[in-house]
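The instructor's notes for this session suggest beginning with a concrete chain rather than abstract definitions. Hand out the sequence below and ask the class to guess, before any prediction is shown, which regions might be ordered.
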Amino acid sequence: MRFFCILLMHKVESSPMHTTQLDLRGMSRDSLLACCAAAGVKPVHAEHLTAAIFRRGHSDIATIPEIPHRLRDHLLAHTFIQSPTIAADQQSTDGTRKLLLKMGDGKAVETVLIPAEGRLTQCVSTQVGCAMGCRFCLTATAGLNRHLTAGEMVAEVMVGQQISDHRVRNLVLMGMGEPLHNYAAVAEFVRIASDPKGMAFSPNRITLSTSGIVPKIYAMAEDQLPCNLAVSLNATSDAVRDQIMPINRKYPLAELMRAVRDYIAARGNKRVLIEYVLLAGVNDSLDDAKRLAALMDGVGCTVNLLPFNPYPGSRFARPDEADVEAFHTILADQRIVVVVRRSRGRDISAACGQLIE
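After discussion, reveal the predicted structure:
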């Protein structure tokens, strides 16, 4: 949903609010068990908390049912529940809905709800802004303000669920930010989201997209992070990728593709999604298609082709439909699993690469 963009290795602050308290929406079941122990109550109450917070969406500690007063008092003293406010709500002609959510410190992020055949996909932001600097991404123009916490990401989903007619079934970490630049919080969010006694999302319905921070791809494999991996590739040569995705200068194509192969092997041949943004006259030639087919040969990836979504001030253009179809045909003829993804919400700047606070 968004395009990743130069890794700046400076310290980035997380939310400064509630610095002496813990966000219940960012706590795993183990953390909730520890909370119950600290309050001197039975572990079974952690199950009640998990259900209330993650399945029923309680946002007021004082009204959480089925917990003893001792635990409630402890929670009120030592925890809070992240509850962002909706600062803006836009609806696209295709049914896509974009929310601007203001966090406790006043910082804002966008999240997108995408309906399809009775189910709902939510595009989740992981940072306020982005540090990757991808040349074709609107989010990148704002730079990075701060990381989001796991609790703030959970809160995004809770808000999306509360205002929707259908249950959110799929999560795509493709909103504002680079998920692997905020690895610890994102990993905690994924674990909370996939906990069958918590938010209960199937790991197969959670997809994390990265611009290619190679060491963190290996961390995902080692940690067996319960989600799918998508890699925003967008070029078939280092010369082009260096220009449009500065992170390539740190982790060039050969190193990135080796990490993808190693990830697939470590995860039992689990398929990886390759995202390829088609930029007219930059990376959409027939030679690019042939090189991409060669890169994909025998790797075990699915390719998503995404025609560029223009935004004011961008120097890139969307390719013609005929060029997109020709690119697709070359990949398909080489037996590459390839799909042209039709962006949703373009009329409200909610499509891939168009999110900005």
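Then share the key points. The CA atoms of residues 27 and 298 lie 40 Å apart. Residues 253-266 form the longest helix (14 residues).
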